Amino acid sequence: MINYFSETEEFLLEEAQVFSDWLETCAEKEGYEIDDINYIFCDDEYLLEINRKHLDHDYYTDIITFDYCDNKLISGDIFISVERVADNAFDFDTDFNTELSRVMVHGLLHMMGYKDKTEEEKLEMRSKEDECLSSLFYEDNEE
Q1: Residue range 92-118, pLDDT digits in tens
Q2: CB 115: neighbour CB atoms within 10 A?
Q3: How many other C-beta atoms are found inside a 10 Å radius of the C-beta of residue 101?
Q4: Angle at Cα 39 formed by Cα 139 and Cα 134, nearest 5°?
Q5: CA distance 67 to 47
Q6: pLDDT for res 136
Q7: How far apart are CA 34 and CA 72, in angstroms?
Q8: Distance CA 101, CA 85 (A)
Q9: d(Cα 23, Cα 29) in Å, to the nearest integer?
Q10: What pTM was estimated for this model as a whole?
Q11: Dihedral, CA atoms, 123, 125, 126, 128, nearest 10 degrees?
Q12: 84, 47 Cβ separation under 8 angstroms
């Protein structure tokens, strides 16, 4: 089951079932099954505090993933700063929904073992993100 929570009044995920179906399909393509994932949408300060408290990092980030997976059964908490996503969308000249989707699947891919520390890992992660994004259709894109 995929759950969505918001720690900020400014954001509510629309079309949650579309995202859930899509994320489950992405996991299945990699041979994984989603057990329980919580996506928690928040602002920069909320995520900065988590970054400081749990990772001892003192900087803003767009996502923090806490992985509780058991082999091929995916479980975890994914915290996403919608402020960082909006800034990144602007910086990367893309729309908010596309960047949000990329970040959401990025967290899922981390739980499936994909990493992004080295340049080679970053390229593989971006390729997997793009592969997953190609199968997501928003209501807005169907016009």
Answers
A1: 999 999 999 999 999 999 999 999 999
A2: 12
A3: 21
A4: 40
A5: 16
A6: 85
A7: 8
A8: 10
A9: 10
A10: 0.92
A11: 120
A12: yes
